[in-house]
Amino acid sequence: MIVGDRKPLAEIAEMLEPFQKVCVLGCGTCVTVCLSGGEKEAAETAAALNLLMQKEGKTKEFSPGVILRQCEYEYIDDYAANLEGYDVILSLACGVGVQTMNSRLPEKIILPGLNTRFMGYPLEQGVWQENCLGCGDCVLDLTMGICPITRCSKSMLNGPCGGSQEGKCEISKELDCAWQLIYDRLIKFNAVERMEAVQPPKDWSTSHHGGPRTIVREDVRVDNREQT
Ligand code: SF4
Ligand code: SF4
Predict the structure, then answer these.
(1) I need a surface site. Which of 23, 55, 98, 105 has the fewest CB within 10 A?
(2) Atom of ligand 2 at shortest distance to CA of 153?
């Protein structure tokens, strides 16, 4: 899932200063699951902003709403009529959702209420871990399912750097060394000889380093360019 957390209320209030009537719009998918931008958080954020404005003696209006997925045109289209009459939409979706909304509703202003952090998963209630940087050429088959691009602070591809100490990364004693984790799993599955295989330099052109990416699947494509 994409993981984010809500911007501080004061920052949001400052961003919304020029506007009177605001829709605080949650998203029903990733940010609901990571408890930062779903229906509940949209209601809480709108209530907190209304209270703040009352305290400051300002007459502004914040109303909550939610779209199941702000990152897909179909869901935006289904909800669009509900957004009429607002001066601005504060989106609690990830950055993908905010941009999809702006693309689909170009006459409206949609501002970000979250800081989008990373792709990852919940380790436990309230703890999320980044584990994929979308490099475009996955190597998890070589590393026993642990991503060295993301989980190693230096994205090392051929074993640990010299800073690994007692299983921890040199940048923090709280952070497991990714290569220690990979090594432990290689031992567990009797495949430690794989540590000796030398991986060639990675071609980063498949990652964001090669520029913004687009995937085209002709086998499932429906040409809707006229609609967009
Ligand atoms: S190797 Fe690349 S695609 Fe695979 S998990 Fe890591 S960053 Fe993601
Ligand atoms: S200590 Fe381990 S995780 Fe940290 S940078 Fe070095 S190899 Fe990567």
Answers:
(1) 55
(2) 5
